[in-house]
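not sure who needs this but someone in the group chat was asking about 5,10-methylenetetrahydromethanopterin reductase from Nonomuraea jabiensis so here u go. i didnt clean anything up, its just raw.
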Amino acid sequence: MTTRPHYSCALAPTAEVVDTARFAERLGYRRVWLFDSPALHGDLWVALARIASGTDRIGLATGVAVPDLRHPMVTASAIGSVHELAPGRLIVAVGTGYTARHALGQQPVPWADTVRYVRQVRALLDGEVVEIDGRPCQLMHLPGFAPPRPMEVPLWVAASGPKGFAAARELDAPGVVMTSVPADGDHGWAQCAVLRFGTVLRPGEDHTSRRVIEAAGPGYASIVHAVWQKAGAAVDAMPGGRAWRTSLEAERPERERHLIAHQGHLSRLTDRDRDVVTAAGLAALEPGWTGDAASIAARFDEAGAAGVTEVVYVPAGPDIPGELRAFAEAARSSFR
């Protein structure tokens, strides 16, 4: 018998994130994942600590923490602080930082460096002495200054593609987070979370509805961003892509375009992104989970059959509570 996945949500660290997390907790969301893109949002660890103090039971997760943004000791100490506030509620997923790094004008962290980083953080949490930057390091907190070691906080991997899966296996990660439902043979982990954007359609709505554009559009826009980031003018082949790129190039010189290309990533539409989403028409809804409640419930069944244990919904647009409520109702209907 297929086990249906739990439903969780991914949020940007904002001033309202604690209230949103409390609302998600009341709606039965299993976990709240937070983005780690300092150029685009507030600080991941400050927000997680606030949520840990402001909620009772909802799980907490990094979605996902990025090596090179922080020294391994800083990450290990931050993990300890949140773990102390919410024992047993935190998981830490680590990835190469595609958007976070590109927003800084840098390439994602190489997988070899990511694996080394995870191992260093794991060793620190276990109370071991680990070499970092050529010198031995260890969490040295006296009693009362941090939780005792070892800290049993799971370290997951954001795996995408053969290199990511190989890294997760090399690390013997207890769980992975992906951006699409895995194909047969693409995973073998007991815990597998999948990030999904989109919106639950109301009666009479379609791709031309303003609310749908604002709620589902940021997910499609993130694909436009990625195509431009990887291949520049290749974005011209997408509906409205040439106009999108022309606008980008007119606003900033070449060396500064990364500073505006990813604005609103998975959260809000800029005027430029809204135009490209509108130009895409119905195609803008296809990459995500957009449909009526029954279709969302069916997707939960499909994900469960593929071995997904947790669907992480990424709500977007001006009404995040409304998006969370509608998705939770659709998710719960899959259990009836």
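also The beta strands are 6-11, 31-34, 59-65, 90-94, 130-132, 135-137, 155-158, 175-178, 191-197, 310-314. if thats useful
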